[in-house]
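re: that chain from earlier
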Amino acid sequence: MIYVSSIKMSSSGKPNVLLEGEIILNHSLIIKQVQLIQGHHRLFLNFPQVRDQRLIYPLNTDLYQYLLNQVIEYYAHSKSDS
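^ sequence. v structure.
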């Protein structure tokens, strides 16, 4: 079972990027350069890409949705602390 151990993200000065940083899974897998993006109608995660525009971290839909929910929760909590 995969779970989020830690989220280390901070505000970004880039347009439409709400948070930028890393997600640590199961205390061992670090996904770096993850961004929480504000789209026109929704929030989504942007992961690092290689030159041929393929995702470095292949994710199934359930894992992506879980990570998105965790990061949105982290963002809401960080905004309420400000």
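Residues 61-81 form the longest helix (21 residues).
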